[in-house]
Write a structure and sequence with these properties.
CATH superfamily of the largest domain: Glycogen Phosphorylase B
Family: Belongs to the glycogen phosphorylase family.
Number of helices: 34
Distance between the termini: 28 Å
Largest sheet: 10 strands, mixed
GO cellular component, one term: cytoplasm
Keywords: Carbohydrate metabolism, Glycosyltransferase, Pyridoxal phosphate, Transferase
Bound molecules: ligand 26Y
Oligomer: single chain
Structural class: alpha/beta
Strand content: 5-15%
Cofactor: pyridoxal 5'-phosphate
Shape: globular
CATH class of the largest domain: Alpha Beta
Number of strands: 24
Catalytic activity: [(1->4)-alpha-D-glucosyl](n) + phosphate = [(1->4)-alpha-D-glucosyl](n-1) + alpha-D-glucose 1-phosphate
CATH architecture of the largest domain: 3-Layer(aba) Sandwich
CATH topology of the largest domain: Rossmann fold
């Protein structure tokens, strides 16, 4: 009897058709003629799955039989995007599937449109995690991605009268064909209660006596490498009530009320928090964090590793990479397991823990750094709080040994802040073997400005790994025309060795290649136009430059600066300063969600829509300027927008954007960047060259110097007449039917506060945009720059990021 994996179906059109029809019949219980589009989509997804499963199971078996170290990526967010095309591409089945479905008379496009993307992340950090696990699988590096299976992902955005309205994202309404639930393998995750000391054969030990618990049910997802036969695992946890749920804890005596209280357990994985820049200290969020991290660590130790594994050797087998501070509660959890459960000595356990964790920081904004009030932490995880106190005590002792009783330093470095909260970034830094920022500038600022005392105390701990993006999804799948062009020019192999794009450089001077490149952009614009027409009834003029700013709405990213440029361009026309007919046609595309509680961000969304309505409908503009703001920007829409873009807007205040990853996707798709010297823009500009990048604005040191001198934004509005007029237009109600009160708060915030120095960078930004207009009129020169952007951006593959993590942090090896 075969006990290994059953072989995959035959990789032929006939084999695919047979498996497809079997799945329709046996898994969906329908015939082809009676099937719905959802049935047909499911059967297709199941068929692709069937080809991948054998490799997956074989890979798991081989990993278990090896003694390799695995990367356990701990992330509260994975912004995966649709899976169908990615899995077809990875398994090399795209053509076979297309042919097979055609033979069945099934429209594959219709099925593609059925798939709902799992939006289990907010933005950059979640999408980065998805790119990283794609690269690890492609590089055959053993990896388990651990996270949360939120029942509701990032909200669906709609506009009502130009204002953002949030709708729940019920992505699981029709189920998900890609997941493998394992309720039988649920873990018990405990909370609350108290700690006690007890006598353990003459040794006094501590233990946790929790008050309540929930079940963590694993859902497995396949993460296929690109045509290499490797399939890794993404394991997302879903919360369930316990069988033995202690009803009395919640409601003594009232049975019905108590049973109702079981839904409390299901709440933990119910919804993704939509804030991505302000930590609010919400208890449910801490529950989510502990829930998934505790389940993941236990899973790796109890399920992945062999039974009775000697945990002093855990660092040889596992590195837990902390994707920001969200999973940092895993540090005291591992200590608790080692010391309380496995009865290891504290020092030995600490040595293991320090080697097993590494921490990636994704921000420089102080308000995004997580801190947990000790009373909340002590109530939810009392033993963990004790362990954190002890870690802090020993750490501060070491600081005193080194620097003497420098109380100011001690206060500054204490994991417990003076106002009684646990500073999670400090805990991660003390516990982690390495700490990394996500772009050169960010890592430098992290060491110099955010954690300088730690950098001094832990020489060699800080490092940089510049972010990257997967070329499989963001070039090959999103831009098949460009991919074909590249392969035609330099052959294949570049998709897994992206530096080879360098070989494209000579083609920048090849007029035929540039023409083909221009046709590719035009085709992508038409494809985007068709998508936006069908989705939102929007139109794009064929001859317009496409100027794109897509990212979360945040003041530091400065969508307001983009808007001031648009208002200025509009004002120049309506004031008669320029002839409409002489203005190069531009379509401005925005995509942005605002955190539901972030009032200023929502007001800016309203203003973008309001400016769009006025500009788009004003006959004096003669259609030269258009503003489009399709709602609900997500991965699926990004895949359409980015390949069509001519100009990429990366205009954050220098020193605020940790890296950015959209910037990389645009450059790789041949858009030119207008950007500040911030995050990974710095590295993009260095690589593509000054001539192929529109730099503007203050540098980070200049920003610091201006703050030090004293920043008075109103002075800048006085100095630049164009800026003054743009602000007046907005503040006077020109975009709100004469009602000045609607957008006055935005203007007064800019004039009086302007934390992100929008006004200070305005003049320089407008000058850069004038250079853009000029440059765009020379089509050959523009396309030359665009080709050079593609050719010189190979560095930004997430495969390279993974190699850097491996060399600098993980020291793992691929499983051959
Ligand atoms: C604590 C909670 C409020 C929170 C939740 C989500 C805090 C932050 C986040 C997400 C942050 C994020 O997406 N950061 C982005 O990470 C990208 C990947 O490293 C960077 O490219 C980008 O600059 C950074 O803003």
């Amino acid at each position: 009897l075969a006990i290994g994996p059953v072989g995959a179906p035959e990789a032929t059109v006939d084999g695919f058709v047979a498996q497809y029809l079997r799945n329709l019949n046996f898994d969906r219980g329908v015939t082809l003629s009676a099937s719905t589009a959802n049935d047909r989509f499911y059967a297709l997804a199941y068929t692709v799955r069937d080809y991948l499963v054998a490799r997956w199971l074989e890979g798991v078996r081989r990993y278990r039989a090896s003694d390799r170290k695995a990367v356990c990526y701990l992330s509260a967010e994975y912004l995966l995007g649709r899976q169908l095309d990615n899995n077809l591409l990875a398994s090399g089945l795209s053509d076979i599937a297309a042919e097979a479905l055609a033979q069945c008379g099934v429209d594959i496009e219709e099925l593609r449109a059925q798939e709902v993307e799992p939006g289990l992340g907010n933005g950059g950090l979640g999408r980065l995690a998805a790119c990283f696990i794609d690269s690890l699988a492609t590089m055959s590096v053993p990896n388990v991605g651990y996270g949360i299976r939120y029942e509701y992902g990032i909200f669906r955005q709609t506009f009502e009268d130009g204002r953002q309205v949030e709708q729940p994202d019920s992505w699981l309404e029709l189920g998900s064909p890609w997941e493998f639930p394992h309720p039988e393998a649920a873990q018990t995750i405990s909370f609350g209660g108290s700690t006690e000391k007890y006598d353990d054969g003459g040794v006094t030990r501590s233990r946790w006596v929790p008050a309540w618990s929930v079940q963590a049910v694993p859902y497995n997802y396949m993460v296929p490498g690109y045509q290499n036969g490797r399939v890794n695992t993404l394991r997302l946890w879903s919360s369930r009530a316990n069988h033995a749920f202690d009803l009395s804890v919640f409601n003594a005596g009232d049975y019905v009320e108590a049973v109702r209280a079981q839904t409390f357990a299901e709440n933990i994985s119910k919804v993704l928090y939509p804030e991505d820049s302000t930590a609010q200290g919400k208890e449910l969020r801490l529950q989510q964090q502990y829930f998934f991290v505790a389940a993941s660590i236990r899973d790796f130790i109890d399920v992945v590793l062999p039974e009775d594994f000697d945990l002093t050797r855990l660092p040889e087998r596992a590195i837990f990479q902390l994707n920001d501070t969200h999973p940092v509660i895993g540090v005291p959890e591992l200590m608790r397991i080692l010391v309380d459960e496995k009865k290891m000595e504290w020092d030995a356990a600490w040595a293991v823990t320090q080697q097993c964790f590494a921490y990636t920081c994704h921000t420089l904004l102080p308000e995004a750094l997580e801190v947990w009030p000790i009373d909340l932490l002590g109530r939810l995880l009392p033993r963990h709080l004790e362990i954190i106190y002890r870690i802090n005590e020993e750490f501060l002792l070491a600081v005193r040994e080194r620097f003497g009783d420098d109380e100011a330093r001690i206060r500054d470095m204490s994991i417990i802040s003076p106002d009684g909260a646990v500073r999670m970034a400090f805990l991660a830094t003390v516990a982690g073997s390495k700490v990394n920022g996500v772009a050169e500038l960010h890592s430098q600022l992290l060491r110099e400005k955010v954690l300088p005392a730690f950098d001094e105390f832990f020489p060699g701990k800080f490092t940089n790994v510049t972010n990257g993006v997967t070329p499989r999804r963001f070039v090959r799948l999103a831009n098949p025309e460009l991919s074909a062009l590249i392969t035609e020019a330099i052959g294949d192999g570049w998709l897994t060795d992206l530096e080879r794009l360098r070989e494209l450089e000579p083609f920048a001077d090849d007029a035929d290649f540039r023409t083909a490149f221009g046709e590719m952009k035009a085709a992508n614009k038409r494809r985007l136009a068709a998508t936006l027409q069908a989705r939102d009834g929007l139109t794009i003029a064929d001859d317009h430059m496409l100027d794109v700013m897509v990212k979360r709405l945040h003041e530091y990213k400065r969508q307001m600066l983009k808007l001031l440029h648009i208002v200025t361009a509009y004002d120049r026309i309506v004031s008669g300063e320029v002839e409409a007919s002489s203005v190069p046609g531009r379509t401005f595309v925005f995509g942005a969600k605002a955190a539901p509680g972030y009032d200023m961000a929502k007001r800016i969304i309203h203003l973008i829509n309001a400016v769009g309505s006025v500009v788009n409908d004003d006959p004096r503009v003669e259609g030269r300027l258009k503003v489009l703001f399709p709602p609900n920007y997500n991965v699926t829409l990004a895949e359409r927008i980015i390949p069509a873009a001519d100009l990429s807007e990366q205009i954050s205040l220098a020193g605020k954007e940790a890296s950015g990853t959209g910037n990389m996707k645009f450059a790789l798709n041949g858009a030119l960047t207008v950007g500040t010297d911030d995050g990974a823009n710095v590295e993009i500009r260095e690589l593509v060259g000054d001539d192929n990048f529109f730099l503007f604005g203050m540098s980070e040191p200049e920003v610091e110097a201006l703050w030090a001198r004293g920043y008075t934004p109103a002075e800048f509005a006085e100095k630049d007449a164009g800026l003054g007029r743009a602000l007046d237009l907005i503040g006077s109600g020109a975009f709100s039917g004469g009602d000045a009160s609607v957008f006055a708060p935005i203007v007064s915030n800019l004039m009086n506060d302007d934390r992100f120095m929008v006004l200070a960078d305005y003049t320089s930004y407008i000058a850069a945009q004038d250079r853009v207009d000029d440059a765009y009129t020379d089509t050959a020169a523009w396309q030359r720059s665009a080709v050079l952007n593609v050719a010189r951006s190979g560095f930004f593959s997430s495969d390279r990021s993974m190699r850097d993590y491996i060399d600098r942090i993980w020291h793992t090896e691929p499983l051959g």
